[in-house]
Amino acid sequence: MYILTVGLNHKTAPVEVREKLSFPYEKLEEAFPRLKEKKHVHGCTILSTCNRTEVYAAVTDVDTGLAGIKAFLAESCGLTTADIRDFIYVHTLYDAVRHIFRVASGLDSMILGETQVLGQVREAYEISRDQGATNGVLNTLFQQAITVGKRVRTETKIDQNAVSISYAAVELAKQTFNDLTGKSVLIIGAGKMSGLTAKHLVSHGVNSVLVANRSYDKAVAMAEEFGGRAIRFENLFDYFNQADVIISCTAASSYIITAEKTAAVRRDYHKPLFMIDIAVPRDIDPEIAEIDGVQLKDIDELQYVVDKNLAERKKLAADAEVIIEEEIASFFKWLSSLFVVPTIKALRQKAENIKENELERAINRLGSLSEREKKVIGSLANSITNQLLHDPIINLKEYATTHQGHLYAEILQNLFGLEVEGQKMKKKDIGQKPVTIHSSKK
């Protein structure tokens, strides 16, 4: 059984192609039967997000299985395989396993180390399993991929450094207050960036949300999203002292929050106030930072945090790659056992068939032999057969404990022309992951 990955993502295909090849939940129920109808496809999982669509499959013939998966993807978007050829990538065997482990770890994402993709991998696996689309190999692969994703995040903390402007704002607010539980936020402007920042703040414990916007209806809509309250834009200074955090991101051409007005409303109020100006041009007069008890961060300071954290994530990604290599070795030790045992059985059976046929032929040609003579000739044939098989079988068993065991099994199958049920690979495919022959086993 061989593992294949065929897909496209944000690095290989524009959004207009990705959206044609997406598989929302309602399309999956009919997609799995069509995919499993393809020749030699014995198990499959479809991972479909806004940034990628990938088919993972366990096949018994690499060439035929690959052609079937490509045809399935083309059929699903009403195109031909030639139309999608330049957008898709293919990973087989070792590279397919490495790919899903890197995807689950957030190392192949648009935002390095992001967390959401791990949940998407888990959901894709559970849906395909519940639909009866997976098999034993894919079940083990995805269960281990989920474990790898968790291990990478636990051991490297790669997802704990903010790499978006909205999340960086939250991280700075947490540094100011230590704990955001029970804090209040005033959002000025009802755009996407304000909404993302508010979402992150609420997820970290902020429980009171006020929204001010020039369009009161938009303020109401955003406030409802977070269980908050809309206020009239012209009255926003009346609520300054109710907020612990103020986020401003409007399209104003000049300061909407001046130092003079802010100083006036805070004259007799010394509770800490953290202000975040995400707007360009700026919404908040930078002189406000001189007011006692007020901290102000603008978008350049937030971007500095993002750049610094992204550099740190890239360093941690190297540690994650080490973990992934360890997990790949573990997976292939398991997979190798699936290849090696039936290969040894097939080799022994072929040797036994040849021995029996040639022994019968020789005895018939020799004519009248005593039982003792037949026994001596039979013992000789058994001894020759066992000695010839001894080293290949012992070596293959030792290689079964390495991540290259399945490749040695494939080579043996091709050298001896063995037919192993559920395993058929073209000779040209054996080089997918180079095999290094060592003088001693490890």
UniProtKB/TrEMBL annotation:
The Quinate/shikimate 5-dehydrogenase/glutamyl-tRNA reductase domain extends over: 171-305
- Which keywords has UniProt assigned to this entry? NADP, Oxidoreductase, Porphyrin biosynthesis
Q: Does the keyword NADP apply?
A: yes
GO MF annotations in UniProt: glutamyl-tRNA reductase activity; NADP binding
Q: Which residues bind NADP(+)?
A: G189, A190, G191, K192, M193, S194
Q: Report further notes.
A: During catalysis, the active site Cys acts as a nucleophile attacking the alpha-carbonyl group of tRNA-bound glutamate with the formation of a thioester intermediate between enzyme and glutamate, and the concomitant release of tRNA(Glu). The thioester intermediate is finally reduced by direct hydride transfer from NADPH, to form the product GSA.
Q: Domain text from the record?
A: Possesses an unusual extended V-shaped dimeric structure with each monomer consisting of three distinct domains arranged along a curved 'spinal' alpha-helix. The N-terminal catalytic domain specifically recognizes the glutamate moiety of the substrate. The second domain is the NADPH-binding domain, and the third C-terminal domain is responsible for dimerization.
**Protein family (similarity comment):** Belongs to the glutamyl-tRNA reductase family.
Described purpose of this protein according to its UniProt entry: Catalyzes the NADPH-dependent reduction of glutamyl-tRNA(Glu) to glutamate 1-semialdehyde (GSA).
Protein name in UniProt = Glutamyl-tRNA reductase
Q: Which gene encodes it?
A: hemA
